[in-house]
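Reply to dn_fold:

You asked what the input looked like. This is it:
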Amino acid sequence: MGQKSELKLLGTPASHFVNRVQIGLNLKCVNYEFIDQNLGCKSDLLLKSNPVHKRVPILLHANEPPVIESLLILEYIDEILPHVHPILPRVPSLRAHNRAWAYFIDTKFFPLFEDLRQSPNKEGQDMAKKQIREVAKLLEQVFVECSDGKVYFGGDNIGYLDIALGCFLGWITFSETLNNYKVFDETISPRLLEWAKKMRLHEAVKKARPTDDALSKHYTMIQYIKPSRTA
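and this is what came back:
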């Protein structure tokens, strides 16, 4: 896996799901080729690699079948490189617990930001913000439970839930600035506030984080056209 040509990641820099995979690959110290995709005009390689969902991220590894869906890609790279920065816990019950909360993050937390973006009036926006903060308060409890008083969900090192949630930090900051509110703060989620600061400073996360310009351009695009989903 050392050769750059053996591992390719199809994605777009502004996608937090793509960023999720990038963080995992960075933690594993893997060299890979990033193939930027125009989701408004999808490449033949993308359509061939993911013909059903037609979305990114997609991981191509040598002659293996394409691996799709960001959480499944994380598990894949963890299985083929188990001794380099383990991502998932090794205890089966803890793995299941991590997977359940990662699913919650993808299906219950991230969609609230889309609700906020699409809200046509202040009442709807305020409701979305309230729901976001309520879920943030719940995730604070999850963090306390999983971290066992340490820095990350994974304890001393970044783990599966850190990546699952941390991939969205760029968009969280963008949303906070745009909508004048705070997702994590000292009142409802002080531990997550500190966690977010640590995550943003971690080299593996910094390398994957999209630029403000990329986020702004992507946001402007999806305001006018229905975006291709990423996962």
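The longest strand covers residues 7-11.
Hope that clears it up.
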